[in-house]
């Protein structure tokens, strides 16, 4: 019997691997989103990607038959820009996909003496020369701002390194710990909750990444649901650094928590929430 989550007033949905993938919409995703809206639940689409600006993400959702507004889509690049503004940092070195540069239009690009170096998704754009540039800027005193630290993502059916390993390399070489703007930052989840007029405890985050989606949400006080789509791997549930699930029994490992629910896909979410 499917367990249910009670008391949920708002839902955060990861995009890539949860709502859609390279092949298109995850089966049942559009119907699930419609059911959540019909039940009156607050809704936010929450993504770490810095390969696309928010407007492009909204258009993709709409093209796939999922209604979404700009205000409903919260992205790690916009969280990074807000962090820079709040810390009065105006000169930056920017390392994101070309399509996302527009999200940082308010800042001056400075490759000589930046106040911050912003690191995000670059796919095949990462190379030693670029890493050395980031390394030298951070050694020179620039704030290391990671849009996220995802370990890997899925492209064309194959797992690929994401921004996290490159951020980790810079941290290791400089001894500087990056500020993380997107998931699993608690501020990211708390900001989403505030935008809905809710507290983090009212939210559930649904995604395919056990670390950034599920564990990040739980650390912020929300609940986390893992879906077996996207980059999910069965071994995620056996990671000794995270959690184990055995025949429905819950075993906490170390200081980490287990998913509040594990679903086959987003299509199962309405039933899991009783809507």
Task: Describe the structure in your own words.
The protein has 275 residues and is of the alpha/beta class. The protein has two domains: 10-48 and 183-273, HAD superfamily/HAD-like (Rossmann fold, 3-Layer(aba) Sandwich); 87-180, Rossmann fold (3-Layer(aba) Sandwich). It is 29% helix and 23% strand. The chain has eight helices and 17 strands. The protein has helices at residues 29-38, 54-63, 76-86, 128-139, 163-174, 186-195, 210-219, 269-273, and strands at residues 10-13, 20-21, 24-25, 42-47, 73-75, 91-95, 108-109, 116-119, 143-146, 152-155, 158-161, 179-180, 203-207, 223-227, 243-246, 249-252, 261-263. The strands form five sheets. The chain has a six-stranded parallel sheet with strand order 5-4-1-13-14-17. It has a five-stranded parallel sheet with strand order 7-6-8-9-12, covered by helices on one side. The two termini are 16 Å apart.
């Amino acid at each position: 019997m499917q367990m249910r989550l009670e008391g949920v007033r708002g839902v955060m949905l990861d995009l890539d691997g949860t709502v859609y993938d390279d092949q298109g919409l995850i089966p049942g995703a559009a119907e699930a989103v419609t059911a959540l809206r019909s039940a009156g639940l607050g809704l936010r689409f929450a993504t770490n990607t810095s390969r696309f600006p928010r407007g492009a993400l909204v258009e993709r959702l709409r093209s796939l038959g999922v209604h979404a507004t700009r205000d409903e889509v919260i992205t790690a690049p916009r969280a990074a820009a807000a962090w820079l503004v709040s810390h009065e940092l105006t000169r930056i070195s920017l390392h994101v996909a070309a399509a996302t540069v527009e999200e940082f239009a308010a800042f001056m690009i400075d490759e000589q003496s930046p106040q911050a170096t912003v690191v995000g998704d670059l796919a095949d754009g990462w190379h030693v020369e670029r890493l050395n540039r980031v390394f030298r800027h951070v050694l020179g005193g620039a704030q290391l701002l990671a849009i996220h630290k995802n370990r890997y993502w899925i492209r064309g059916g194959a797992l690929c390194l994401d921004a996290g390993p490159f951020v980790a390399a810079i941290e290791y070489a400089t001894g500087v710990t990056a500020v993380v703007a997107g998931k699993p930052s608690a501020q990211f989840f708390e900001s989403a909750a505030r935008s809905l007029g809710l507290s983090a405890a009212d939210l559930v985050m649904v995604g395919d990444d056990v670390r950034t989606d599920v564990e990040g949400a739980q650390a912020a006080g929300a609940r986390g649901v893992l879906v077996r789509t996207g980059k999910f791997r069965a071994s995620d549930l056996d990671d000794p650094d995270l959690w184990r699930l055995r025949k429905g029994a819950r075993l906490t490992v170390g200081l980490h928590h287990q998913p509040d629910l594990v679903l086959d896909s987003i299509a199962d979410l309405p039933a899991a929430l009783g809507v």
